[in-house]
Design brief:
240 residues; alpha/beta; 11 strands; globular
Length: 240
């Protein structure tokens, strides 16, 4: 059997991906599907850390636009990621995958505080680690969290699983039928073209730390394993 292309990865899930076709809240069928896909790669010996967004419950920027203080709105968004992380932990443990949630904001009754050395130890023991509550700071996205945590735990790649697209396009393919899909990009191209796959802070962090990013669709069953095995799916972003 071919060996996985990566040994340690950060899987970035959007909050919207957990909502399924409903568009909001948490779809238990989607949680179960993602959990089974993650179990597949854990059984291959891959060490998996996860960062999940909170957009299916609350978006800090949207709340701020409606008049809520930006810092308060962002903290509310961090709490939304904790809810998603606990739902994902439950789904993973139901399929037999040992999991730990670590939060950047302390809430010891439901999760561990984020401690880098402890997170790495969990990974070495083949436990999935879910990083919740963003970086613990307002004004930073969960994309930036994924980049930061990946650098800290020395992950080999960030797998960005999308629920609406299967890679990076020159424009929104839902709005522009002529949108071109890219197979390979550099971080400078992503920034210069304003492609919006992740915010500029996250892109710069990945570029500075030589972290490759693979953007692919989560909606096709088995895609996480295909990504881990190095199959050509989605769009890969690297440094120069």
């Amino acid at each position: 059997m071919p060996l996985p292309a990566y040994k340690r990865v950060v899987l970035k899930l959007s909050g919207e991906a957990l909502a399924g076709n409903v568009g909001y809240g948490i779809d238990s069928d989607v949680i179960t599907s993602i959990s089974h896909q993650i179990k597949e790669i854990v059984e291959l010996g891959v060490q998996v850390a996860i960062v999940v967004g909170g957009g299916n419950i609350w978006r800090g920027l949207a709340g701020s636009a409606k008049g809520i203080d930006r810092t308060t709105a962002d903290y509310m968004g961090m709490l939304a990621t904790v809810m998603n992380s606990l739902a994902l932990q439950d789904g993973l443990e139901r399929v037999g995958v040992p999991t730990r949630v670590q939060t950047s904001i302390e809430m010891r009754q439901v999760a561990e505080p984020y401690i880098r050395r402890k997170a790495v130890r969990h990974l070495e023991k083949n436990r999935v680690v879910i990083f919740a509550a963003g970086t613990g700071n307002p004004y930073f996205s969960t994309d930036t969290t994924a980049a930061l945590r990946a650098a800290e735990i020395e992950a080999e790649v960030i797998l960005m699983a999308k629920n609406k697209v299967d890679g990076i396009y020159s424009a929104d393919p839902a709005l522009d039928p002529n949108a071109e899909k890219y197979e390979n990009l550099t971080y400078l191209e992503v920034l210069n073209k304003g492609l919006g796959v992740m915010d500029s802070t996250a892109s710069s962090l990945c570029m500075d730390n030589h972290l490759p990013l693979l953007v692919f669709s989560i909606m096709e069953e088995g895609n996480i394993k295909r990504a881990i095995m190095g199959e050509k799916i989605g769009t890969i972003v690297k440094g120069e």
